[in-house]
């Protein structure tokens, strides 16, 4: 069916294992955006959450982009909307807007630069060091980038509810239980958790780090879907979840059955106005210059 429709299945590292296994490409938000921009397929089935499918549509407006479960949203992305961002811009008229890719298309349409957790530091260092910058919506990603670059941002009170469930006591406990293990955390974790990390990395950064490291044991402080790929690609290594609570319910909504229905019935097609696509595109293309 996939061949018949000339479709490609893209999956985020947090998807359930069987969805990752049938995908053509599994990756982080940055890698998935690249794939969406360069694919020659007519149809993109996005196994991820709503803002990811929207980003794919903005980059490839001529393609059909499908989200198998339309309820797969991102609560962090929903913490800022266009109205709130307009107010922030009015309060800081000279500021540039840097938006985490976890934002709606309407927010991206008001944005100068997008970034992901993989390239936020590079985007800031490459383009925004001399500017006043509004950084939305993730206050923890902003704190992480501030620490790396020394730059202060005008921030919004957004955060990822799934990563917020991981607390510093979890890392301390895991380090005590597995003294040889390295603790790998995600920039969406709280600053207290990231302060205890051996490395703070995007999901694909975690995959790459584990593969190239001589170490055999890792404490994983991000959404637990990533452990499927870590185990599959490193069968000789050991992975200890920092917290069993780090499960994003939205990422788990996509199933093989829903992907099948999505392909058969063109469900659920992402539709955006030409105006929003036009306005939002620049911010994502600028992000793709920083790998
Ligand atoms: P990355 O895969 O880009 O690190 O993003 C994590 C995330 O929470 C996506 O929703
Ligand atoms: Fe959003 Fe967090 Fe879920 Fe990612 S893990 S989709 S940031 S709620």
Description:
With about 290 residues, the protein is an alpha/beta fold. It has 13 helices and 12 strands. The strands form 3 sheets. The chain has a 4-stranded parallel β-sheet with strand order 2-1-3-4, with helices on both faces. Helix 7 links the parallel strand 7 and strand 8. Helix 3 packs across helix 13 and helix 10 runs parallel beside helix 11. The protein is globular.
Largest sheet: 4 strands, parallel
Low-confidence stretches: none
Could you tell me the mean pLDDT?
Answer: 98
| Helix/strand order | EHEHEHEHEHEHEHEHEHEHEHEHH
Could you give the count of β-strands?
Answer: 12
- End-to-end distance, in Å? 33 Å
Strand order of the largest sheet: 2-1-3-4
Q: How does the SSE layout of this entry go?
A:
Blueprint: E1 7-12, H1 17-22, E2 25-27, H2 29-38, E3 43-47, H3 50-59, E4 64-66, H4 82-91, E5 96-100, H5 105-108, E6 113-115, H6 120-128, E7 133-136, H7 139-149, E8 154-155, H8 168-177, E9 182-185, H9 191-194, E10 199-200, H10 203-212, E11 217-221, H11 226-233, E12 238-241, H12 256-265, H13 274-288
Parallel strand pairs: 1-2, 1-3, 3-4, 5-6, 5-7, 7-8, 9-10, 9-11, 11-12
The structure holds 1,3-dihydroxyacetonephosphate and iron/sulfur cluster.
List the defining traits of the structure above.
291 residues; alpha/beta; 12 strands; 16% strand; globular; binds 1,3-dihydroxyacetonephosphate; binds iron/sulfur cluster
In short:
The protein has 291 residues and is of the alpha/beta class. The protein contains 13 helices and twelve strands. 40% of the residues lie in helices and 16% in strands.
